[in-house]
Design goal:
single chain; about 280 residues; alpha/beta; Alkaline Phosphatase, subunit A; 7 helices
């Protein structure tokens, strides 16, 4: 599978945002990419008889040929001193392999807390421009800090979905206002809502959850915590979401001939620190 670097994801979301103020026939290429996109034209022919007519299915937009798959893995509260990829003591052979195959960055600017950093990463915008100046639980009624995103939010998932990608988010979300994070919605600010634009979500909405007994949602439906992982071991969300992501990828490969964008955000290594016994034993002492 081909993957694009994380840096280009952030840049792409900014490049596609413009204001659309001219008529369609006078639009520049940049304006044609404005959000919301202009509706495509039907190019069929309606004659007086069927023989004089020509059908045309507009369908969904298609991603450009050779468009890459994009995988973004985000960890909370992790530093360069943690993983072997950057010289740490925790062995991360898969991360090491991915890093060796691509570009390994040595700097990322963060907003020091969860929701703001995530909002900025998914849009390419400054945290205050999209209302995520503070974590959603502490939102206030002031511009830049209210967690009240709207339809103009330039979500990379929304942009890629509208351009023919299959999109999915797994794990921790933490970008939905707390008063909206219940099974009755409203759902516009959920991962699969109109603001963020993911096609599929499996994970938890808040800032943290029990790693063995998480409060899980699939899209907008609360689901029972599985008792075991796919291999029969005791359920832990880090392995459970990997199982679910693999299942989603299997369906994607079998049913859709389009590139994918996956936003993969484990609950580890954020609190609560609940590490499975077999992982604790690896570093005993």
């Amino acid at each position: 599978m081909k993957f694009k670097s994380l840096l280009l994801v952030g840049i792409m979301s900014v490049l596609l945002i413009t204001s659309c103020t001219t008529t369609p026939e006078k639009q520049s290429d940049q304006e044609k990419n404005a959000i919301p996109y202009p509706l495509p034209e039907w190019k069929g022919v309606q004659g007086k008889t069927l023989a004089d007519s020509k059908p045309d299915f507009i369908g969904q937009p298609e991603a450009p040929e050779e468009a890459p798959n994009v995988l973004v893995i985000m960890l909370d509260d992790a530093g360069y001193s943690n993983t072997s990829s950057f010289g740490g003591v925790m062995k991360t052979p898969t991360f090491d392999r991915i890093g060796d195959e691509g570009i390994r960055y040595t700097h990322m600017s963060v907003a020091a807390v969860c929701s703001p950093t995530r909002g900025s990463l998914l849009t390419g915008y400054n945290i205050h421009q999209i209302g995520t100046g503070i974590i959603s639980e502490f939102a206030t009624g002031y511009p830049g800090y209210n967690s009240q995103l709207d339809y103009s939010t330039p979500s990379i998932a929304k942009i890629l979905t509208d351009n023919g990608y299959a999109t999915a988010a797994f794990g921790k979300w933490h970008n939905t206002p707390m008063e909206e994070a219940s099974p009755v919605g409203p759902f516009q600010s959920w991962p699969t809502g109109s603001i963020w634009g993911f096609e599929y979500f499996w994970g938890f909405l808040g800032g943290e959850t029990n790693q063995f007994h998480p409060l899980l949602y699939e899209n907008t439906t609360a689901i029972e915590t599985p008792k075991t992982n796919a291999d029969g071991s005791q359920f832990h969300i880090s392995q459970g979401m990997a199982d679910q992501a693999i299942k989603w990828l299997d369906n994607w490969k079998g049913l859709r001939d389009v590139p994918f964008f996956m936003y993969y955000t484990p609950g580890a290594v954020h609190a609560p620190i609940q590490v499975p016994k077999e992982w604790r034993d690896k570093y005993k002492g």
